[in-house]
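Weekly puzzle thread! Below is a chain. First person to post its structure in token form gets bragging rights.
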Amino acid sequence: MNAALALLGRVLMSAIFIQGGWGKLMHLSGTSAYMASKGLPLPFVAAIVAVVVELGGGIAVLIGLRTRIVALVLAAWCIATAFIAHYHPDDAGQMIHFMKNVCMAGGFLVLAAWGAGALSADRR
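Winning reply:
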């Protein structure tokens, strides 16, 4: 039962990153423009990094590959993007997204602590 729950948890946690990373990849110029609008240096490079972290990290979590390290990277990513993109205390909608990112970071820290479970590439 624990192995199946861990797998389901990884599926659910990875879905938003796979979808988001794929969307960024398919609209790289728009992603780069958004990065520029947030004042990030080298917005095209930032867009590529976002695709690698989100799509690559999401796939790695999904299959349970190098899960502890990837989970730490994604936890840091969630906190960074929470502050860069969603910290607007005057906007309740953005603050919900901010707290969603903080919550996901917590989930990734648990994943980093306990690993991917028995049904993962890490265990093979």
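Puzzle host: Confirmed. Bonus trivia for everyone else. The chain has five helices and no strands.
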